[in-house]
Amino acid sequence: MTGAPNDDGTDAAAPVDETPDPPHWLRNVILFLSGQTVTLFGSMLVQYAVFWYLTITYQSGLVMALAAVFGFLPQAVVSIFGGVWADRHNRKYLIMGADAAIALTTLALALIMMTGYDAVWLIFATMAIRSAGAGIQMPAVSALIPQIVPTRNLIRVNGINGSIQSAMMLLAPAAAGGLYAWASAASDGTAASLIPIFFIDVVTAVIGVGIVALIPVATIRRAGDVETGYFADLVDGVRYIVHHAFVRWLLVLFAIIFLLTVAPSNLTPLMLVRTFPAGEAQDVVNLAVLEIAFSVGMMLGGILVASFFAKRSRIGLIVISSLIFGALSIGLGLSSNIWVFFGFMFLVGLAVPFFSTPSMTLLQETVEPERQGRVFGFVGIVMAVAMPIGMVVFGPLADVVSIEVLLIAAGVLTFVVVGLAVWLPAGQRAITAARRAAAVGEANPAAAPAAVEAEMHTKDS
Q1: Degrees (nearest 5) of the Cα angle 320, 286, 171?
Q2: Are 219 and 431 contacting, i.e. CB atoms less than 8 angstroms apart?
Q3: Are 247 and 429 a contacting pair, CB within 8 Å?
Q4: Which of 273, 249, 309 is nearest to 452 (CA)?
Q5: CA–CA dist 291, 297 (Å, integer)
Q6: Nearest residue to 361 (alpha-carbon basis) of 326, 312, 303
Q7: Phi/psi of residue 5, each to 5°?
Q8: Which residues are bridge partners to 11 per DSSP?
Q9: DSSP state of 220
């Protein structure tokens, strides 16, 4: 029996959580985050360098749109199956296998480029394969974290993970900028400047896979241990999301943010090169500063969430940060000074953990362990589809309309659509259910998923 929730979202009469901690959880978390950090660093070097190469070389919104399509759409397709695999197989091996496949693809691209063949379609093809690997890895990583972390520590570990990733996002663009500038000078600005960065990515992937291999991770046993087919699992996952009002609402909000905020934000490097041109060498420096400003903000935001906002309302953080994204998009569009532009990008980074960390934590807290892989797979699908759709619209428009106007329009639309998502009756029901689950979860983490279902059934009746 639980009491009414306090103002801070905790249960006034909550019993102590008696769920045993996973064995050696702290050691395993440190190893897992370390392995993911090393791998992430190499991947980010490639991401920044490739994006900068395409931006500086082509300066085309259409090329940026194609890069988004090849970089995200395969992830959406593969995530349909990746979520099912994450619920059926050992998540650790899925993560290791995806990292290894991505590294081999990158190595093959580097070796081909060493022969002098560097057509842009080859870069797009490699981006597509790397994106497909992310479709396997993302749901497995998101579902593995609550498997090795005590529920009471989830938001703190997610916040720390976000801060580590942000620190890598701070280091990676600086390192990528130096490496790219050096390699570009040696190769006269051709695509061959990417080769050294590709080799670094392969090495970091090998190290990361080796570290993750040290973590003991069991395959999740389903309730009742009933064997079903892949298609049945997929259908069950779709049915679960369709009938789970809170998960459905959160996925819609993810789509809104990625469509109206993340997609146009990907045009900020192009805006930087067009609006504040400074020559190729200085453009690389400015692009690196832009990414560093975002990363510093994101790192500080992750620290704030983990340190001071772990007990705050998850829903409150999600809604407020969503509206802030709209305001910052307008600010980016109105920037007439490069340092003001950098300042707004810092604030965008600062706001990201206030959206992403509580979103992931709520899903980890409210979805049954045996379904988390599929749910996070659909999260990956939503993000991977919304982003390229947004870029398909905003990218070509950026060649006929100023990016500043697009950013302002996207910010205004974000206000309108997020407001509707919050104030419509369906949104209100989902928010109420999530708050109730958070209160129950403080008392008994294992009961949180059932609390959401019970709340939604009560509202529906």
Answers
A1: 70
A2: no
A3: no
A4: 249
A5: 10
A6: 312
A7: -70, 145
A8: 5
A9: P
8 Å CB contact between 301 and 308: no
Which stretches of 244-308 are DSSP H helices? 245-257, 263-265, 268-275, 280-308
Show contacts of 388-391: CB within 8 Å, 24+ apart.
388/65, 388/68, 388/69, 388/71, 388/72, 388/73, 388/263, 389/259, 389/263, 390/68, 390/258, 390/259, 390/260, 390/262, 390/263, 390/264, 391/64, 391/65, 391/68, 391/69, 391/263, 391/266
- Report the pLDDT value the prediction gives residue 226, as an integer from 0 to 100: 52
Burial, 460: exposed, middle or buried (Cβ in 10 Å; 0-12, 13-18, 19+)?
exposed
For the record, the structure tokens of 409 come out as: 């329009």
Alpha-carbon distances, residue 319 vs 39, 64, 313, 384 (angstroms): 31, 29, 10, 21
Strand partners, 5: 11
| Tokens (6 digits) for 153 | 């520590």
Global pTM value: 0.62
Residues comprising the chain, all counted: 461
Give the type of residue at 336.
S
Nearest alpha carbon to residue 122 among 61, 178, 194: 194
Number of helices (H), then strands (E), belonging to the chain: the values are: 17, 0
How far apart CA 87 and CA 206 sit, in angstroms, is 25
Whole-number CA gyration radius for the chain: 22
Mean pLDDT of successive 10-residue segments in the chain (461 residues)?
41 48 82 90 87 80 82 81 81 91 91 84 90 86 83 78 75 79 69 84 93 84 56 73 78 82 79 78 79 84 78 79 91 90 92 85 77 76 76 81 88 88 76 64 49 47 42
Report residue 223 as tokens: 């309730």
> Six-digit token pair at 3?
């009491």
How many Cα atoms sit within 13 Å of 320 on the Cβ side?
Answer: 11
End-to-end CA distance of the chain: 22
CA angle 208, 214, 215 (to 5 degrees): 100
